[in-house]
Amino acid sequence: MDQNQTVPEIKKQVTFDAPIEKVWQAVSSAEGMAEWFMPNNLKPVEGHEFYLESPFETSSCKVFTVNPPKELSFSWGDQGWVVHFLLEEVEGKTEFTLIHAGWGHPDDKMRPTDKTHLDTRNTMNNGWESILNERLRKVVEG
After folding, report:
1. Given Cys at both, which of 37, 100, 106, 121 links 10, Cβ 3.0 to 4.6 Å?
2. What is the spatial distance between Cα 72 and Cα 58, in angstroms, rounded to a whole number?
3. Cα dist. 11→7, 16, 112 in Å?
4. What end-to-end distance do the CA atoms of the chain give, in Å?
5. How deeply is 83 buried, as exposed, middle or buried, from its count of CB atoms within 10 A (0-12, 13-18, 19+)?
6. What pTM was computed for the model?
7. pLDDT tens-digit profile of 26-77?
8. Helix H segments across the chain?
9. Where are the beta strands (DSSP E) in the chain?
10. What residues contact 40, with CB distance under 8 A and at least 6 apart?
11. C-alpha distance from residue 83 to each of 52, 72, 93, 127 (Å)
């Protein structure tokens, strides 16, 4: 395998039958994100350092981009991950795109699970699918 090869980013697009402001609140506030993702202390302020409490560990994160109600991006943990939430209003609905980037070499091991980047990416790809289509959808359309 090419030494410079990295695992492809995860990209998910979902259309919610909800106004963009409601989706923005769900993805850009600590309370909103805790309802569908993980406990956290997010504030939508560029440079804000916060945490996400995953089942495996508490991860340090930092907000990179805040452009209400269209874009939020942040680092997640010390693996090099960057998560982007992109929102676009389309005829009263919200087109939501998630990009989970910053993956390393496919064979490198992840902490603390000791799984490879490729295995972890594939697991998280499935996880994001259900998190967005079931949990976030329930919060914003409910």
Report:
1. 100
2. 20
3. 12, 16, 24
4. 46
5. buried
6. 0.94
7. 999 999 999 999 999 999 999 999 999 988 789 999 999 999 999 999 999 9
8. 20-28, 30-36, 117-130, 137-141
9. 10-16, 49-53, 58-67, 71-76, 81-90, 93-101
10. 30, 33, 34, 50, 51, 52, 53, 61
11. 12, 8, 22, 14
